[in-house]
């Protein structure tokens, strides 16, 4: 479902009085509405905050990114796949059934010793959900969205990434039409590793461009 999609609920239906009561207490801002709804449902004993947190963590940092990680690992071991991925990520990912909502138009960009790529959405939080799962909170934050464009090297340093001065940095701005996947550099010393072992090394941040892949 697109973040701009809306579901219409007929509050006049019998049995929907409780939902109408909850809905009437929610503020207009979407983020505040979610928090308010969570609080109301928690108060009524219908949801467990710990369960919600665990679900978000799973999709933010485990299930989602592992799909993208497998794509990266395959690109590392299969030069023909990497060539096709970089030439037309949308077609290549569609062939292996990895496109979905908010991932229909993909562009893959490769990090090299000479060029480091980073991804941002300066207008909102457009993000390749099918490949990376839920976006981290910092990706949606105003400081990241504004600073990464004007001071990408400084932002990288805050993530613990310091690149050689001669390495160029390119920032890609995601939109509702196009999402980006960074193919990070394969770490030195990984030549004998299997595709599955390589995928385990790839992090969400490295596929956004705010992290590097290492053997440790």
CATH H-level superfamily of the domain at 60-208: Nitrile hydratase alpha /Thiocyanate hydrolase gamma
DSSP strand content = 5-15%
CATH top level of the domain at 60-208?
A: Alpha Beta
Beta strands, count: 4
Strand order, largest beta sheet = 1-4
For the biggest sheet, the summary is:
2 strands, parallel
The percent of residues in helical segments reads: 40-55%
**Could you state the order of secondary-structure elements as H and E?**
HHHHHHEEHHHHEEHH
Say what the CATH topology of the domain at 60-208 is: Nitrile Hydratase, Chain A
Low-confidence stretches: 1-28
CATH architecture of the domain at 60-208: Alpha-Beta Complex
Based on CA atoms alone, the radius of gyration comes out at 20 Å
Distance between the termini: 37 Å
Q: Mean pLDDT score, rounded?
A: 81
Structural class: mainly alpha
Number of helices: 12
